[in-house]
Specification:
Number of strands: 0
Distance between the termini: 15 Å
Helix content: over 70%
Largest sheet: none
Number of helices: 13
Structural class: mainly alpha
Low-confidence stretches: 1-9
Length: about 260
């Protein structure tokens, strides 16, 4: 679950033409990703692509490669739109060309690889996805980027071990590790708690699932994430259905429909 929220005023300003720093454009694209502001993110990446094509970008510092970092972000977005072959082709290009010191380009490319492979749907692809996510998480930990590390752990737990393999205890362990990894206040946490609840529901741990969803609801209300409230209500209905409580399930489904309609 990716929950759109209002970006800060700084992120909302349409002043990309004045930005000539590739690092600033990448930071903008990274900040917009968890907010699901895809068109704004694409615009920042397009501006970076323009600078590179014009040969107007300054040289990157050691361990950075503007072009390969751009390709890694394009791979992430291609995978999100289910253009899996394109995503994996871009990943392959990054991993072939990136210096071993380029942890950002390599880590982000591995994140894209893991997601595309997890959605491929075969056992062999799931194993490759697990390795890609593990490598990404290790690189992000070395960079000290807890948000990216948490994202890699979450996707490894949910996309690989929950959705593809069906190993619920392993999925629960990895998603719990992701929750412990994210920086406090990360905008990703309500969504992660919702994913966590999905696994807990299938494990039959309904009280723990309710607790996770209530924590997510409080965070969503605090941060004004209206869309999350409807999605969380659907998850609460799943908990009630798992408990066999038909009346609560019906009530929560009506609440979910109202929240979804209002968001």
């Amino acid at each position: 679950m990716t929950v759109p929220v209002e970006p800060s005023e700084e992120l909302s300003q349409p002043n990309l033409a004045s930005i000539t720093d590739p690092g600033e454009l990448l930071e903008r694209a990274w900040a917009l990703e968890p907010l699901a502001f895809w068109s704004e993110r694409a615009a920042a990446l397009d501006r970076l692509d323009e600078l590179l094509r014009m040969d107007a970008a300054p040289s990157p510092p050691p361990g950075r490669d503007w072009r390969l970092e751009l390709l890694a972000e394009r791979a992430i977005d291609a995978g999100r739109m289910m253009r899996l072959e394109e995503a994996l082709e871009l990943v392959g290009q990054v991993l072939r060309e990136a210096d071993p010191s380029c942890d950002i380009a390599r880590g982000r490319a591995q994140l894209a690889a893991g997601q595309a492979l997890a959605w491929t749907g075969t056992e062999a692809a799931a194993q490759e996805a697990d390795r890609a996510f593990a490598d990404a998480a290790e690189r992000f930990a070395a960079l000290g980027n807890r948000d990216w590390q948490g994202s890699a752990l979450l996707r490894r737990g949910y996309a690989v071990w929950f959705q593809s393999v069906g190993n619920l205890p392993r999925a629960e362990l990895l998603i719990r590790e992701a929750l412990d990894t994210y920086e406090p206040g990360s905008p990703r946490i309500p969504a992660v708690l919702s994913y966590y609840a999905d696994v807990l529901i299938d494990l039959g741990e309904f009280d723990a699932a309710d607790q996770a969803l209530e924590e997510a609801r409080l965070l969503a209300e605090r941060d004004g994430i209206r869309k999350a409230l409807g999605e969380l209500a659907w998850s609460k209905a799943s908990v009630a259905a798992g408990r066999g409580d038909a009346r609560a399930t019906e009530r929560l489904l009506r609440e979910a429909e109202r929240e979804t309609g209002d968001s």
